[in-house]
């Protein structure tokens, strides 16, 4: 008899737990007071999911950023080599400018690659943070959600029993006490895991701040050094060639171009050998 009663209790417990799962899955409205009691927990969970998402996005951004830096350095170096090649065939002042600029660009391309090690280190730390700290917190959150479902299922069970409770009936009163004991047990387990989740999420946020401040400090220092050296090199080129007279380009207006073409056509007619009053040259056909 005791075994039958125990089996029935387990079945009822699973029934109300399953009902709570369905309520959550279908988005049905739950008891507002029960939901309000978990407001602080839900705020912590929202922050945790934000940390989880942003860390994943940050890893993708770092990978793209490293790729862009490598490509930019390659293009910058190619431009420097092109200017150096042109400078070798130009002995004018412009050739000297191209040579100086090519050296600055090639140096800048090499110094830009110095940004990759701090970014690689940042990527490693964020990935480790995601695989360990976030994964550990996520495991605790899953345990807590399971305990919360059992607790709210027990509350539904107690609410159902209390609606049919007759204080004068011993069996119904005994059943209510058993369900009440079940609610207390699930609540105790849920409160413990709820406290663990809140503490871990707080520690997770603080750990992320420390990790990013340390890693980004190294990257920021390297970036500032790169820009200082590059700006100094470019400023040196500007000062060295200050006062240099730039090239003066002369453009032809449309009427001038048409007049030149007409004059050129007439010159060809005069220069072509004439036979029987006809020109044997076909170059006039171009016009």
UniProtKB/TrEMBL annotation:
Signal peptide: none annotated. It comes from Cyclopterus lumpus. GO terms for cellular component: Golgi apparatus. Pfam families: Arfaptin. GO terms for biological process: regulation of transport. InterPro entries: AH/BAR_dom_sf (IPR027267), AH_dom (IPR010504), Islet_autoAg_Ica1/Ica1-like (IPR024114). GO terms for molecular function: protein domain specific binding. It comes from the Eukaryota. Residues 36-239 form the AH domain. This is Islet cell autoantigen 1-like. The lineage of its organism: Eukaryota, Metazoa, Chordata, Craniata, Vertebrata. Gene3D superfamilies: Arfaptin homology (AH) domain/BAR domain.
């Amino acid at each position: 008899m005791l075994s039958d009663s125990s089996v029935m209790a387990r079945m009822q417990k699973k029934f109300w737990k399953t009902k709570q799962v369905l309520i959550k899955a279908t988005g049905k409205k739950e008891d507002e007071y029960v939901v309000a009691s978990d407001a602080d927990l839900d705020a912590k969970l929202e922050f945790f999911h934000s940390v989880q998402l942003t860390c994943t996005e940050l890893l993708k951004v770092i990978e793209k950023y490293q790729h862009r830096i490598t490509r930019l350095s390659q293009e910058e170096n190619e431009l420097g080599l092109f200017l150096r090649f042109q400078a070798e065939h130009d002995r004018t002042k412009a050739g000297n400018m191209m040579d100086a600029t090519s050296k600055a660009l090639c140096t800048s391309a090499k110094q830009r690659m110095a940004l990759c090690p701090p970014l690689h280190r940042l990527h490693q730390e964020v990935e480790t943070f995601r695989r360990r700290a976030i994964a550990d917190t996520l495991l605790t959150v899953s345990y807590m959600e399971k305990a919360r479902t059992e607790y709210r299922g027990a509350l539904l069970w107690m609410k159902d029993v209390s609606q049919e409770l007759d204080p004068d009936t011993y069996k119904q009163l005994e059943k209510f006490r058993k369900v009440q004991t079940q609610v207390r047990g699930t609540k105790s387990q849920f409160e413990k895991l709820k406290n663990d989740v809140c503490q871990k999420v707080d520690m997770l946020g603080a750990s992320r701040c420390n990790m990013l401040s340390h890693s980004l400090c190294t990257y920021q220092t390297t970036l500032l050094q790169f820009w200082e050296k590059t700006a100094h090199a470019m400023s040196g080129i500007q000062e060295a060639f200050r006062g240099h007279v730039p090239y003066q380009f002369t453009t032809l207006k449309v009427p001038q171009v048409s007049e030149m073409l007409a004059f050129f056509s007439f010159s060809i007619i005069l220069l072509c050998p004439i036979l029987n009053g006809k020109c044997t040259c076909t170059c006039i056909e171009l016009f």
